[in-house]
Structure formats: structure tokens, C-alpha cells
């Protein structure tokens, strides 16, 4: 099945895009968290969102969730690892599944955590973000997983059936749902080292000899997620209509630049979906012309 629009991110930008796409009767798929934006939920009070004031972030987030629920919009609670431009459509890699969409809106917000030293240098050379995608490369090898959320536990359990040894370094309160063969290490990762490929993980109080390391974060950096995407620092480069350098791909919200404000993000989400719908209309007219 090929969707008209795939939306990656369920903060104000992603949800606004989804709502407006639904109103326009587009076939959409929305990826993100049922809890929406962590930043929004943690905000103690919001007074600058037009028409909704003196409200906590948690209450505003609940209003957002209620709105999309009433419209029958489902959030697919999976992380999108890669988005590939395939000519006249996009392929979205989600775990071991592939979804197709004619247009894509990236609304993932920005990552505030710094990369581990060596993480960017060894991307694709022993550092990865999706264990289920790359597990076959580490059969009978030693792997470390640095988990920033509970998704890392699932990846660790999956790898334990393939790798000869799995180390798990949780950067959050672990729920202890790991296979007994997995060694849990309570320490802070400092640096990823290697020659041509990764061979060592330096922790605060020890070193691990490894063949690969997976860093499981809430979202993947857009520059890694979408090959060839133009970025400016941590932000995706867009024009005023939220178009990126890749035809059919749009960005909205914090990932598209400052200021980091909920009202601005929601507006950009609406603009991005408007641009995506214009693209869909152009493609439809073009296809109609070819059929004549």
C-alpha cells in the first residue's frame, strides 16, 4: 500500500499536518509517540498559544491527542530509521518493515543530547541506530547497545539471539526485561574508537572490546535518516513553503529551525501539508495527461 503522505513525528507540527491532511481526505500514515512531544508535556505553563492559555503542557498535549483521536488518526508508535527517495515515491524503513508514500513530512523536533565522541565518525563503520536492520552483520560477534529508552531493551533481546555477546548500557531507569545472557553495564559512554571499523567502547570506568555499537535514541538525526538531505547545523534546510532540497520531502517544526515555539510548529505543519497536497495534485494532473 502506498500512502499519499507519511508524517514522521507527533509533536505539534506532525499532528497539525496530520489533521489538515485528514481534512483534505488524503491517505496518511503518522509515526511517533502516543505521548507526543516530551518538551510540551514537561512545560509547567503555556500562555502564548493563541486561544489556549494558562494551561499546562500536559493538558495541552492531551487536547492534541483528543483532537486526532476524534478524527480517527492513528499514531504508529515505531521509529523511522531511514527515508529513501525512490523516484516517484519514498520508502520508509521502520524496523524490518518498509512503508511507501508519495510525499513525506519530517517533523521530528531536534535532538538535544550530544553525540558520543566517535559516533558520527564511525556511522556505518560499526555504529548504527537500528539493531533489527543491521543485526545480520553481527552474527557471532560482540555488540554493545547504548539505550536512551525502552526500545533499546527490545533491540538488545533481539541481538542476543544472533551475537555472541551483548552489552547493554542504559541511559535511563532500566525495566529489567532483558535476556539473562545480556550483560548490563551501569556506566557512562565516553568515546567510540576503532581503526577502519569500530573495535572499542570507552566507558567512564572501563573499556569494552566490541565489533559494533548501536545507539538507540528517541529519533534519528535527519541527516542520517534521509540520504542527501541538506541541513544547517541541527536543522533541515527549507524554503518558506517547508520544501527541502528533495522533491516531495518537507520539514516542519523545531527540526526546520528556530524559534522553538508550539504555535510556530503547528503553523509550519499546516504549511508543509499544504505544499505536499499541491505536489500530489501536480502528480495527479501529470498522470491524467499521460493516460490521454
TrEMBL record:
| InterPro entries cross-referenced by the UniProt entry | FAD/NAD-bd_sf, FAD/NAD-binding_dom, Ferredoxin-NADP_redctase_2
Q: Which Gene3D superfamilies match?
A: FAD/NAD(P)-binding domain
Keyword list, A-Z: Flavoprotein, Oxidoreductase
Please list the GO terms describing molecular function: thioredoxin-disulfide reductase (NADPH) activity
Q: Which residues form the FAD/NAD(P)-binding domain?
A: 3-269
Does the entry feature the keyword Oxidoreductase, yes or no?
yes
In short, the EC number is 1.8.1.9
**Keyword Flavoprotein (UniProt):** yes
Superkingdom of the source species: Bacteria
Q: SUPFAM superfamilies recorded for this chain?
A: FAD/NAD(P)-binding domain
- Tell me the Pfam families matching this sequence: Pyr_redox_2
Q: Which PANTHER family does this UniProt record tie to the protein?
A: THIOREDOXIN REDUCTASE 1-RELATED-RELATED
Q: What is this protein called?
A: Thioredoxin reductase (NADPH)
The lineage is: Bacteria, Bacillati, Bacillota, Clostridia, Peptostreptococcales
Amino acid at each position: 500500500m502506498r500512502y499519499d503522505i507519511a508524517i514522521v513525528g507527533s509533536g505539534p507540527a506532525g499532528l497539525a499536518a496530520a489533521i489538515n491532511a485528514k481534512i483534505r481526505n488524503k491517505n496518511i500514515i503518522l509515526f511517533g509517540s502516543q505521548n507526543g512531544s516530551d518538551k510540551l508535556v514537561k512545560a509547567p505553563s503555556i500562555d502564548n498559544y493563541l486561544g489556549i492559555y494558562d494551561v499546562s503542557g500536559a493538558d495541552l498535549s492531551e487536547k492534541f491527542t483528543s483532537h486526532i483521536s476524534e478524527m480517527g488518526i492513528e499514531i504508529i508508535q515505531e521509529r523511522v530509521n531511514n527515508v529513501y527517495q525512490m523516484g516517484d515515491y519514498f520508502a520508509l524503513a521502520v524496523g524490518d518493515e518498509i512503508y511507501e508514500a508519495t510525499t513525506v513530512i519530517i517533523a521530528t523536533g531536534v535532538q538535544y543530547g550530544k553525540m558520543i565522541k566517535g559516533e558520527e565518525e564511525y556511522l556505518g563503520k560499526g555504529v548504527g541506530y537500528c539493531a533489527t536492520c543491521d543485526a545480520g552483520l553481527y552474527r557471532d560477534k560482540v555488540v554493545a547497545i547504548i539505550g536512551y529508552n525502552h526500545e533499546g531493551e527490545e533491540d538488545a533481546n533481539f541481538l542476543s539471539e544472533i551475537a555472541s555477546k551483548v552489552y547493554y548500557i542504559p541511559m535511563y531507569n532500566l525495566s529489567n526485561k532483558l535476556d539473562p545472557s545480556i550483560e548490563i553495564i551501569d556506566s557512562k559512554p565516553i568515546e567510540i574508537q576503532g581503526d577502519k571499523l569500530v573495535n572499542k567502547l570507552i566507558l567512564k570506568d572501563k573499556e569494552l572490546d566490541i565489533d559494533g555499537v548501536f545507539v538507540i535514541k528517541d529519533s534519528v538525526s535527519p541527516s542520517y535518516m534521509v540520504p542527501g538531505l541538506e541541513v544547517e547545523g541541527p536543522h533541515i534546510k527549507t524554503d518558506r513553503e517547508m520544501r527541502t532540497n528533495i522533491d516531495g520531502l518537507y520539514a516542519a517544526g523545531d527540526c526546520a529551525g528556530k524559534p522553538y515555539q508550539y504555535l510556530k510548529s503547528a503553523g509550519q505543519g499546516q504549511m508543509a501539508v499544504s505544499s505536499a497536497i499541491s505536489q500530489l495534485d501536480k502528480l495527479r494532473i501529470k498522470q491524467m495527461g499521460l493516460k490521454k
